[in-house]
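It would be a great kindness if you could assist me with a short task in structural biology. A protein sequence and the structure tokens that stand for its backbone fold form the material at issue. I should value your view on which stretches of the chain appear to form regular backbone elements. The record follows directly beneath this note.
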Amino acid sequence: MNDILVIGAGVTGLTLAWALRERGHGVRLLEAHPTAGGKIRSRHADGYRVDLGPNSLLERPGQGLSRLIDALELRPRVVEANAQAKRRYVCREGRVIALPGGPLDFIRTPLFSARAKLRLLSEPWRTSAAADESIAQFVRRRLGAEFLDWAVDPFVSGVYAGDPEKLSVRAATARVHALEAQAGSLFLGAARQAAKRRGSGPAPRSRLIGFRDGMQELTDALAARLGDDLQTDSSVAGLRRVGGHWVAETAQGAVEGARLVLALPAYAAADLLESFKWELAGELRGIGYPGVVNVALGLPRAAVQHPLDGFGMLIPSREGRETLGVLFSSTLFPGRAPEGHVLLTAFIGGARNPEAHARDDATLIERVIADITPLLGIDAAPTFSRVTRWPRAIPQYTIGHLDRLARIDAALAELPGLSLAGNWRGGIAVGDCIDNALALADRLAGEALNT
């Protein structure tokens, strides 16, 4: 019998299984699909390297991602994003405007009106909210409506594919909310943090990275390290408890584990736990996952008038376009497009456009091209395209999400030996998933030593 049985080989499950095996535990990782990696997938076609899910990683020195890259001996495969990636563009009233990079840029930018800029001076005196509130409520209260419409709304669409009127500021943007909670002001909180960093000496630099052949290099390396401990094409039809341990039923037979971790989307974990505790399954199903479509477009460089000198462009909902944003993928990392061409990665769908993923490829490509052509100055048809649908893409941390997690944890306490993991808690970014998986591995290893 395995010490620990893990179900779900996305980046969370892969990292967890690898970390547990490194600590000497017997682990079996089951994955329903033919390959591991979850939504981290990279494809090469016609000279283009396309990431179909996550496109980049923020590496913070000393955190889990950095340690994992070194342990997997992937450092030679890492590529740092082009320095131009610090520039981010936002569309306002048909104009593509760079987000301000500093105080002088902020004073000069046409992205916000003079009234909105002056409104910021009152931010330190704005009162705090006692209850959980939406990101939209929080931003209107502290920064004003223009900053919601032209900065925060597109950011939320770009990261969560979500609706800022519904997402919880405490759950979805915990670091931002903490500034208010600790200092009573975003500006004062940020200033205190900056002073603290200066007092402790030069801080290690965070950087945006990818891999030479795409993000899948990371999950492929984890899968290779696990070897036969990773069992793909192994969909779990049901779970049983037998004599204090867990049994997963698969087409290949029963797989046992003294402990069980479901490293799955919340809705998939709910399906397996329905017969054990329906209240827990109900809470998990309450976490929404809107669909998102990734539309990759290759174009001759000469056919795009915009300099593409940045990370990409976000499109606020007030612009009335369906496309949420566009990454300038071939600017970010080398080797993403053939010589003389560019790769753009657009996203469409999300919480406010849930039907988008049901359209056919041609319609989706046509919609994206119509949205971005006047903004980027495109004057030719794409020579390459690829459409990838994620019908259930990104978990939504809506108002009350932290209370929901507390109820989930309370229900889990009644199912000994079971843990749940995934990007529906603790952060949706790949780096967050890695940090959370490593922390869970530490906890499980500690529990094993105490039994």
Q: What stands out?
A: The chain has a mean pLDDT of 94. The CA atoms of residues 247 and 256 lie 4 Å apart. The chain is about 35% helix and 20% strand. The radius of gyration is 23 Å.
